[in-house]
């Protein structure tokens, strides 16, 4: 059964057309299970019925004709119960219903399994027999459940592909279908999708049309000839070291590159109008699946060679491509995995929105997007990315949804939200030079989190009082090698100068987790629990020392630098880092610089540090809480994983308790404590942190004006009352509702994300919010 299952699954993955996939399933399952009938019913949203879509054993004329309501028959019962139903004699079941069009009255035994994707029932798969005495055994039931799970993915993908083009699974028009992911950065954007992808990665190549077929074929032929030359040269060079059977591999490669084989098929696709990289991807994938299905181990392994060949051809094709795609006026950048470098390539003023398949609301690229004020949706795991290129898209960064091919009504609805946002922002500009204080005069400075130099410009215009967190890894990430001491000094000087004499807190390099440097790859099973932040830099004192020296030198004449250490989990890390910082400071002074020793602080981001915060705070000048990581580690929820995004609660009672304790303990030992996680930029979060006694809040520049407005609209009694109330609650959802209610009561409800009602939107993927 296992090998049958594998070959059916592989065959299924190779089929692009939904009807072909359903017909194949019906036929293969019927044969594999030796049953008389196998049928697939899909749920049709419009009619609210299960429609017979494919069958082996029932009358073919019934396909598309038989419609079963959820309250009808055994198929309806399987769908409603969302579990398999296995009956020895279906005729005796009270829900059994006879559909004359199918001829199924002859059948007795019945096994029906729901087809479920992300908690949504997409259909039902059924096998039937005439012999009343036969009951499908456990193995058969498990087989059908496994097939159904695979089929669910294929159906969902096909549904999503159709919906992007405005067609539903039943072939009707599908307008305003929402694809749900996770909110990345607030705001709404309407624009045109531009799919960007990493080089030489076949899987992420989008399916674009080509304008000039002949030129595209020429381009492809040039790539084939270049790869053929490469293979020949490598083969000749290695010949003396290889055994004949190994040399034969090069022959295989060259044969595959023969005109009639792979290249011929790719050219056929190009003639159908697909561009060369997309045609290559389709043909290579088809070959790979074909090889993977082979029984022979040696031949199965050849799939690897095909993939390798495909990658080589793609890489040559990409050499010929213009370096940068064309970016329309309002670009919605779409990628399997967005990187800061991809964002940086869009010309200034043209980046309207971001869409990423991977990552979640607290991934670093989402944080960067928030800092830039670009509406973003992350974790759109079920979306066929390649189809979004060139399409009109709406990005709803409040709900974490996108829409392709929107109706005029839906566009008008979102345009009105954009206008409202612009009005709100205009109203906040006048607050720029006003202090951040409550109605009863409690003052709390608002700092900004920065990474790019554009953040600095925005922060100044938004009235930030200093930098609470400069993420130094950002300039490292947009470089192609470690920046030199001189280069780093120039980056840091810009930040320090812009805010002097106000303080600028620079965090030492915090890489690892979801922050990768292309030139310093860290590959780990469990990156968020691995080599991250201070752990990396203490292991590489040469990198750490250069960075500290650059920071210290950059502060000459300004003396507004504070150095902050990320990911501290024990006191010896602080002592080791302090030792290196002293060393760097002495070295710089020995070079003739006249500088005061900068203040050194730490981030509290790991639960262990919460319990040791007194010992930690006693050793440093200041403490800042990184609530993004603290939340992920307290709740054991990967901040980058959309599958568990709904479990990442900043208002979780455990998180709030930890934040209270850190503030209390730092003050008990006489050290200032601030917060630089995203919670500080959340209106409700800011009020709670104020009540907990935090000395400063640091957030992205986009959120700063609204937080100032929120704090200027409340008094300390309101903040303390709200904190006391939420600390008695045990559910993050109830806490959120309680906080939102309090904001509305205080007349500052306009800062809560807008409600969308009555817009006729249908959700395709289960919302993870
Ligand atoms: C945090 O973890 O809260 C933080 C501010 O650091 P980062 O988001 O860069 O990990
Ligand atoms: Mg962190």
From TrEMBL:
Keyword Transferase assigned: yes
Pfam families linked: GAF (PF01590), PEP-utilisers_N (PF05524), PEP-utilizers (PF00391), PEP-utilizers_C (PF02896)
Residue span, GAF domain: 17-165
Keyword Kinase part of the UniProt annotation: yes
Reaction(s) catalysed by this chain's protein: L-histidyl-[protein] + phosphoenolpyruvate = N(pros)-phospho-L-histidyl-[protein] + pyruvate
Cellular component GO terms held in the UniProt record: cytoplasm
Protein location: Cytoplasm
EC number: 2.7.3.9
Residue ranges of the TM segments: none
A single MF term (Gene Ontology): kinase activity
GO biological process, one term: phosphoenolpyruvate-dependent sugar phosphotransferase system
Catalytic EC class: transferase
UniProt xrefs under Gene3D superfamilies: 3.30.450.40, Phosphoenolpyruvate-binding domains, Phosphohistidine domain, PtsI, HPr-binding domain
InterPro entries: GAF, GAF-like_dom_sf, PEP-util_enz_mobile_dom, PEP-utilizing_PTS_enzyme, PEP_util_C, PEP_util_CS, Phosphohistidine_dom_sf, PTS_EI-like
Essential cofactor(s): Mg(2+)
Keywords associated with the record: Cytoplasm, Kinase, Magnesium, Metal-binding, Phosphotransferase system, Sugar transport, Transferase, Transport
Family recorded in the similarity comment: Belongs to the PEP-utilizing enzyme family.
Protein name: phosphoenolpyruvate--protein phosphotransferase
Organism per entry: Vreelandella halophila
Gene label: ptsP
């Amino acid at each position: 059964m296992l090998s049958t299952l594998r070959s059916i699954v592989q065959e299924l993955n190779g089929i692009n057309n939904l009807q072909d996939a359903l017909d194949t399933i019906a036929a293969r399952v019927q044969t594999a299970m030796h049953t008389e009938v196998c049928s697939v019913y899909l749920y049709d949203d419009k009619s609210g019925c299960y429609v017979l879509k494919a069958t082996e054993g029932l009358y073919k004329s019934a396909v598309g004709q038989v419609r079963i309501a959820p309250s009808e028959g055994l198929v309806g019962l399987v769908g409603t119960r969302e579990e398999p139903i296995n009956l020895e004699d279906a005729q005796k079941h009270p829900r059994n219903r006879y559909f004359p069009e199918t001829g199924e009255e002859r059948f007795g035994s019945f096994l029906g399994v729901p087809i479920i994707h992300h908690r949504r029932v997409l259909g039902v798969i059924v096998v039937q027999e005439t012999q009343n005495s036969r009951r499908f055994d456990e193995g058969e039931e498990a087989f059908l459940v496994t097939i159904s799970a695979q089929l669910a993915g294929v159906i969902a993908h096909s549904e999503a592909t159709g919906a992007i083009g405005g067609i539903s699974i039943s072939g009707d028009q599908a307008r305003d279908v929402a694809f749900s992911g996770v909110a990345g950065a607030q705001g709404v954007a309407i624009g045109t999708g531009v799919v960007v992808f990493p080089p030489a990665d076949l899987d992420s190549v989008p399916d674009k049309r080509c304008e000039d077929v002949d030129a595209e074929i020429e381009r492809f032929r040039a790539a084939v000839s270049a790869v053929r030359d490469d293979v020949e040269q490598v083969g000749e060079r290695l010949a003396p070291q290889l055994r004949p059977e190994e040399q034969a591999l090069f022959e295989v490669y060259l044969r595959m590159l023969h005109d009639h084989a792979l290249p011929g098929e790719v050219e056929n696709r190009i003639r159908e109008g697909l561009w060369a990289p997309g045609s290559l991807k389709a043909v290579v994938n088809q070959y790979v699946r074909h090889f993977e299905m082979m029984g022979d181990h040696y031949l199965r392994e050849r799939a690897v060679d095909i993939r390798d060949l495909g990658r080589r051809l793609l890489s040559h094709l990409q050499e010929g491509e213009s370096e940068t795609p064309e970016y329309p006026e309002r670009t919605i950048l779409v990628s399997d995995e967005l990187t800061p470098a991809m964002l940086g390539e869009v010309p200034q003023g043209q980046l309207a929105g971001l869409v990423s398949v991977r990552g979640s609301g607290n991934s670093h690229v989402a944080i960067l997007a928030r800092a830039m004020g670009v509406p973003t949706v992350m974790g759109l795991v079920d979306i066929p990315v390649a189809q979004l290129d060139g399409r009109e898209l709406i990005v709803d960064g409040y709900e974490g949804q996108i829409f392709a091919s929107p109706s005029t009504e839906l566009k008008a609805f979102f345009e009105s939200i954009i206008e409202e946002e612009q009005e709100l922002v205009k109203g906040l500009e006048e607050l720029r030079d006003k202090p951040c204080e409550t109605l009863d005069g409690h003052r709390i400075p608002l700092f900004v989190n920065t990474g790019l130099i554009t953040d600095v410009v925005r922060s100044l215009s938004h009235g930030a009082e200093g930098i609470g967190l400069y993420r130094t890894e950002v300039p490292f990430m947009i470089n192609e090698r470690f920046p030199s001491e001189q280069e780093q000094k120039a980056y840091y000087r810009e930040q320090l100068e812009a805010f002097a004499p106000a303080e600028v807190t620079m965090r030492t390099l915090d890489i690892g987790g979801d922050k990768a440097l292309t030139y310093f790859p860290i590959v780990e099973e469990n990156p968020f629990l691995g080599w991250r932040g201070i752990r990396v830099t203490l292991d590489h004192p040469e990198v750490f020392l250069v960075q500290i020296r650059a920071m210290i030198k950059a502060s000459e004449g300004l003396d507004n630098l504070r150095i902050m250490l990320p990911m501290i989990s024990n006191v010896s890390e602080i002592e080791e880092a302090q030792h290196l910082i002293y060393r760097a400071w002495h070295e710089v002074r020995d070079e003739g610089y006249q500088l005061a020793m900068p203040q050194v602080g730490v981030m509290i981001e790991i639960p262990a540090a919460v319990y040791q915060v007194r010992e930690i705070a006693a050793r440093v000048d200041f403490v800042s809480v990184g609530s993004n990581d603290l939340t992920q580690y307290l709740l054991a929820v990967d901040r980058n994983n959309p599958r568990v995004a709904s479990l990442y609660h900043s208002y979780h009672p455990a998180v709030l308790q930890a934040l209270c304790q850190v503030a209390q303990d730092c003050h008990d030992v006489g050290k200032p404590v601030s917060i630089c996680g995203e919670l500080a930029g959340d209106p409700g979060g800011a009020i709670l942190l104020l009540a907990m006694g935090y000395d400063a809040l640091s957030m992205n520049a986009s959120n700063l004006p609204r937080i100032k407005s929120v704090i200027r609209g409340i008094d300390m009694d309101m903040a303390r009352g709200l904190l006391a109330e939420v600390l008695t609650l045990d559910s993050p959802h109830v806490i959120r509702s309680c906080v939102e209610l309090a904001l509305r009561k205080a007349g500052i409800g306009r800062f809560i994300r807008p409600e969308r009602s009555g817009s006729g939107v249908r959700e395709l993927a289960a919302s993870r919010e």
